[in-house]
Amino acid sequence: MDKNIIKATANQKLFDYKIKxxxxxxxxxxxxxxxxxxxxxxAKSSSCGMFRIIDGEKKIxxxxxxxTGRINFTIGHELGHYFLNHELKDFCVLYDKDRNMNNDKxxxxxxxxxxxxxxxxxxxxxxxxxxxxxxxxKFKQDIAIKIxxxxxxxxxxxxxxxSRLSAYFLVSKQAAFYRxxxxxxxxxxxxxxxxxxx
Length: 198
Hints:
Layout: H1 3-16, H2 27-33, E1 36-41, E2 49-54, E3 57-63, H3 68-83, H4 107-120, H5 123-137, E4 145-147, H6 155-169, H7 173-182, E5 186-188
Parallel strand pairs: 1-3, 4-5
Antiparallel strand pairs: 2-3
Helix pairs in contact: 1-4, 3-4, 5-6, 6-7
């Protein structure tokens, strides 16, 4: 699906639900209004969540063995399947932190991840919060934090910015980093290991 359509769908849902602040705080209300039951399961596997319609009843299953940020992103991902009207013929699985969320080649899964990122970290609000941090940490607004292999002097700054955005938007540091990268607010070398942010 075209990224612009996914972004527009996420923005429409933010508008429909009058969400102007941290969208993760509204997930429970959205689930309730959409008549989607949230069920936590104790899954030992790498699966994080799935969306199912069983006998006409909409259900999102979430692995309870994850941190809050990962749970929120997973709920956003499963809502992506729902709002993007994906035809779900098999289990729709979002993989754990050991698997990069952009590595899954299934188009529906990639689209659901992108929906979650756009919905939970809307561009305008994300840029606003990034620029507030730019003022606080005294770096240029609207300019990407650049991490070069030969010089890691901005790594501490990136750790702080990703951590603060993660805390504000109630998502994982991984999701916060990939959103920064997606909207060109961070630039890293090809072999950059995201684990250095933890």
